[in-house]
Amino acid sequence: MKFFIDTANLNDIAEAQALGVLDGVTTNPSLMAKEGITGAENILAHYQKICDLVEGDVSAEVISTDFEGMVKEGEALAALHPQIVVKLPLIADGIKACKYFSDKGIRTNVTLVFSVGQALLAAKAGATYVSPFIGRLDDISTDGLNLISEIRLIYDNYGFETEILAASVRHTMHIIDCAKLGSDVMTGPLSAIKGLLRHPLTDSGLAKFLEDYKKGNQ
Ligand code: E4P
Question: Please, which residues have CB within 8 angstroms of residue 142's CB and are 6 or more apart in sequence?
Fold first, then answer.
């Protein structure tokens, strides 16, 4: 399973990259705003900085909600850097734009996916990635992980090449569960990724190894 980090924070991206397990980055307009990145030029410059920091795919989301606007924005984003993947919302014009970009060989991430029907449409339109938001489904007492397994089943039934990118991952167990269910990618915060490191037996075992080494090497 590929690991993407879901942030526009350059320090977090650099820390995950330094760990050596990062395969890409996802952003969205809220995450950019959280970092205080505003204005078209600054936003493009920030995407460039992210691409300079990491080697993998960087999802950059369009703001337009009409086909023409999405195509214009998406083409400008894709031209910025070969690592950019154009992120499109799952609405009718987003699906049309996805098909347009797919026919042109421009990679896409269809976002704001909350049902298997939406995921089926994104795959039919040739999306590179589909982003089901598991955390936001959990927030409304719906089983987010179940959506991942249903999409997996349908994509496998028909051999769709669209990769399932489990999004809105909130914590470490989400990552483990997504891996069990065969998600191709997960995107989550640095804290969820770093949570995978932790085990008290690792800490106590290491402390004992170091203590015993010291005793024998004084
Ligand atoms: C996906 O690409 C989104 O950026 C993201 O995962 C949304 O997560 P949230 O529900 O924690 O805002």
Answer: none
Average per-residue pLDDT for the chain: 97
- 187-204: b or e for each residue (b if 16 or more CB lie within 10 Å)? bbbbebbebeeeeeeeee
87 tagged catalytic:
yes
In short, whether 57's Cβ falls inside 6 Å of ligand 1 is no
Whole-complex ipTM: 0.96
Question: Where along the chain do its domains lie?
Answer: 2-216
Q: How confident is the model at residue 218 (pLDDT cuts 50, 70, 90)?
A: confident
The model's pTM: 0.96
**Cα of 163 from ligand 1 centre, angstroms:** 17
Per CATH, the homologous superfamily of domain 2-216 is: Aldolase class I (3.20.20.70)
Buried b (16+ CB within 10 A) or exposed e, 105-136: ebbbbbbbbbebebbbbbbebbbbbbbbbbbe
- The DSSP H or E segment spanning 134 is helix 134-139
